[in-house]
Amino acid sequence: MSAFPDIDTIQYEGPDSDNPLAFRWYNPDEIVEGKTMKDHLRFSIVYWHTFRGTGSDPFGPGTAVRPWDDGSDSVDNARNRVRVAFELFEKLQAPYYAFHDRDVSPEGSDLAESHKNFDAVAEVLKEEQQRSGVKLLWGTCNLFSHPRYMHGAATSCNADVFAYAASEVKKCLEITNELGGENYVFWGGREGYQNLYNTDMKRELDNLGRFLHMAVDYAKKIGFEGQFLIEPKPKEPTKHQYDSDAAACMNFLRAYDLEDHFKLNIETNHATLAGHTMMHELDYAGGQGALGSIDANTGDLLLGWDTDQFPTDYYLTAQTMLMILKHGGLGSGGVNFDAKVRRESFEPVDLFYAHIGGMDAFAKGLKIAAAVRADKKLEQFVSERYASWDSGIGAKIEAGKVGLEELQQYMLDKGNSDPNTSGRQEMLEAVFNRYIDRV
Fold this sequence. Notes:
Number of strands: 12
Distance between the termini: 41 Å
Structural class: alpha/beta
Largest sheet: 8 strands, parallel, barrel
Shape: globular
Oligomer: single chain
Helix content: 40-55%
């Protein structure tokens, strides 16, 4: 029986459509820069917000109406939920989905029962993947919700908790591999500290490095060939998280000899919390050869916390896609909607409105970014701005042919530096506006 009987597969109807249950910009087969939109964007729907979110907040219980869910934590309810999820994935034409272990299967009374529950639900996940053709973008573990993880998981002061977390990761890696997951994500939900008076930071970081090496070693053992990803976030729920932004993550990976095994999963709302733009985090990760995937959402700049709203701002999606195209695409990653409907949007149909809006915004952003790149105005401006590095003393500096002594002599001979040219920020912002209007 259908959970969404009144909703057909969402189709592309074009920019002039007024149908809220149709795509205006996302045409999966449209070719942009030599690839289909479907292949550029690799849309993924998350299991946690979409099928486990209730709309609760610190001031009240859940509001979401989910007729297919009996409210129990039974395996039967979890298995039924899988079939509903895949109906939504298919009707939205989303090629991928993503999950935490505890999203799809209930926690047992002990580790053995939790594993048994996970196996039972994974059987249905595999059946539905084979039936529908929808694939697993990535799996991950929820190592932050259960009280045992109050002090962290891989960075816990309790060695038994470290061991329990390692056991969860082992099982989730096995299931992710069995389901053909193309990536595996680590998000350090509580891997950080609230107070340094009670924290041995060096020991915690060393143990986190050990933990990730264990995962790399076990992945090789079971033949998992997917990409490992780390997701930066500076705070929430801890005051300071060790994976605070893209730069901190890269520093950590290099310090613990993990850079060959991990890339980054960049989230918009986390970039905001870190005091950065999404463009900044994407460009930094891409420049380090570590751009792996993105979580597509946005925050509310009037609220200083992680609101995980659906992205509908064309400027945001265009800037995001400009960086993704610049760095060669997402590879095995995707545009993963780590976003939740608002507490007030409680009906099942709102799940469709939200995802359609986000998918359309990214499709429009892709087209805008491609137009910017084709026109080359921004590229040419940057090239001209840095022209002094292409020849003469600039080229010698970048080639490592001069040091402080040679540079001093160069300036003594020349007498003064060449004058600067304007950065023309306001002009370039206005130029970018033109592409928003044209596409």
